[in-house]
Amino acid sequence: MPRPSWHAMKAGEVAGYLRVDPARGLDEAEAAARLEIYGPNRPSAAPGRSAFARFVAQLFQPLVLVLIVAGLVTTLLGEWVESGVILGVVLINAAAGFMQEGKAEAALLALARAIASEATALRAGMRRRLDATELVPGDVVILSAGDKVPADMRLLGGKELRMAEAALTGESTPVEKHLAALAPDTVLADRSSMAYCGTLVVGGQGTGIVIATGDNTETGRISRLIAQTADLTTPLMRKMNAFAQRLLIAILALATLTFVIGMLRGESFFDMFMAAVALSVGAIPEGLPAALTITLAIGVARMAKRRAIIRKLPAVETLGSTTVICSDKTGTLTENAMTVREIWTGGETFVVTGSGYSPTGSIEEGGEPVDEATILRETLLAGVLCNDARLVHEERQWRIVGDPTEGALLVLARKGGLDEVTLTSIFPRLDELPFDSSRQYMATLHELEGARIIYLKGAVEKLLPGCSSMLDRQSREMPVDVAGILAASVRMAEAGLRVLAMARSVVGADQSLDQVRIDGNLVFLGIVGMIDPPRPRAIAAVRTCHTAGIRVKMITGDHPGTAMAIARQLKIIDDGAKALSGRELAELDDSALRTAAAEVDVFARVEPEQKLRLVRALQANGEVVAMTGDGVNDAPALKQADIGIAMGLGGTDVAKEAAAMVLTDDNFATIEAAIEEGRGIYDNVVKFITWTIPTNAGEGMVILVAILTGSPLPITPLQILWINMSTAILLGLTLAFEPAEAHIMRRPPRSPAAPILDRKLLWRILLVSLMMLGASFGLFKFALSNGQSAEVARTIAVNVFVMIEITYLFNCRSLQRSAWQGGGWGNPWPWVGSVLMIALQLAFTYIPVFNEIFQTAPIDMQDWGLIALIAFCSFVVVEMDKRWQSRW
Ligand code: ATP
User: Fold this and answer.
1) Which of 658, 661, 725, 803 is deepest in the core (most CB within 10 A)?
2) Pick from 204, 226, 248: which residue ends a domain?
């Protein structure tokens, strides 16, 4: 069946075609039946890169190519065992990398999908929030600013609807939507009567009928063509790749040099070639790329467990360098559980009792409950009518659906004897101007006995300038007392209350909300003050951030007084500190803003658009900025910040799309936890590198020194491969599971420009490499001089090498502190890995097949004693080095 040209049909025709009443939506039974037919609204899993392509990619890494060449040449030379093992190792390495990378990729994709998308649909006449996967063709969906369009839709109605369609058309400027039917040949980008799945609503509101879901949507059809892959590269990995390239050139140069020197000394071509191979094979850290990916993947999974979902992998590293967190107040630092405590109207102050969302409690004046609250009526009424929240009583619990600020007003009205359900039916709503952080107020238009009345609620500073009169005690209009109102609002704000003003305007019967102007025609009704207590975990998290050298800045749309009071409770600021308001901020030029951004920690009445300037000013000061946001207008600042953080519960899809990290609990404490994990992950990468390089450097040096001194090789190329493969997997990788060290949040943030290995670690790597060289070379020579065979001497050399790696692994569990202050039993894997490694070494030494392949031979107890002693000494030396370094 050809697809109908939906955009060319009238909205009514589309509804008829899809058998739905646009005013009621589908019934649940019909929706369920259609879900059976069309399937869930999600693109079926797109094919990733083919397994074969991924496997081949593993082989085409420069370090691996060297091994392949070495394997092929040894084959040509007829060294079957050598070539077999070398090529075997190449395959094992590729298979391990292939599997681990595949797992990491799948885990990241799964996380990206875990951020569930919801949609508001009309079902059987009721608005319902549902999982976007439940939508079916014919569903009537309501779109508002910030939403990601959940399916392809023909628009039915809308107001100032603007969409960002870059995901589909590549065009980044938002396009306006209209409802009129278009010519059938209109191209996709110009179909203004349609909304396409995956595009973003950046302004206005609208409704539409779903015409296609899942794979049948335009984006579904495209995304099936493009393979989905998670980007697994980060700045650190790019740095490491560049390092690997340089390392390779150096190793090849050194191998060639060894070969030439050996030949000049008259050694055989074959021996020298094998020595050059041994050197390259030894010095190449084959395990490094896989270890990086795995450490990052484990870290990302750990963060997800702590409720921070990483959307962009580089954020994991940047988190560890964060120096400033700019956080919203409401819901992130505070509970977002609002309770009205005070009302001021007609010059009188009323106190509200009760707590939470339960409507038990009363409104009191001078300690006495107010019964017939005529004076309060208009303020309460405005709060109820200009309201999109619902109060529900379920399982003996009161709960609100919608914005807590609005929910608190419904509870308040009930305490004053007004019931929102009755009131909304008496005063039907004709139109609305939804709340928006930039506008800072909300307005609704109501019908009342032939007249029309607008109720408004919002920030005092926004509504008050538009008021010429206010209500007195008897609810009569009198000239507005600006000073009295401001004094009352400042008093409430300074007590930490969130302040909201109510106003109304009676308008002509032909007036609509589009024409509403706040210019002196409003009647001021009253103000309410509600508490929103700080989250206890946020208080602790702010303290931890401060000890970790991270500044916390509150950036809020709320009143400066409220912001300061809450910031003081959270200990973000001390008593003497000052706040900067959005208006003051607007007057600062860029350089003055840089100074202010450095000095001030509370920014109040800030419009979302100003957050972008603030992030830029902080970045110009050299800060690494994490910034939270939830609305559409926050998206530019989230993109600009080094780490944009979106709210998983209260945030819009637009903000989530722009963010590098999403908090599934909207809690500030989660940001602090993610930073701790970020620092831990980076530490683990550095620990792995510090552990692995001495092995490679030590092995390279063993070969080099042997050739330069004309000695037989203490370790053969095959044995080197054995050491590298078995220890990287059994020992090195266990460091990826190390928990963050206890003192990690008492350190200052890491500078992003700092090299991966500092001078202290470079020195340690050199020290351990030399110890490995000395121990293996020394014991090899010692055994030979005692008349042992070359096989026995080599077996001793390999064993001492591996045992030092084991003890050094325990050294590396903490790079600065003593080994016991590292992960301890919190990470059992180093212990498990060490036991397995020792078992493997016993096999390597005593089992005949191994002896055959690797040219090893059983060794005596005495030799083991010597090996253990040397390994223990190396452990002690490194621990002493740490102590000594701590005094640098
Ligand atoms: P943050 O940016 O920290 O989340 P916030 O939630 O207090 O702070 P906004 O939601 O932008 O910031 O609110 C700013 C102001 O707008 C509030 O101080 C209040 O006066 C007003 N306001 C908040 N919610 C509503 C609402 N639902 N209806 C009308 N006005 C509101």
Assistant:
1) 661
2) 226
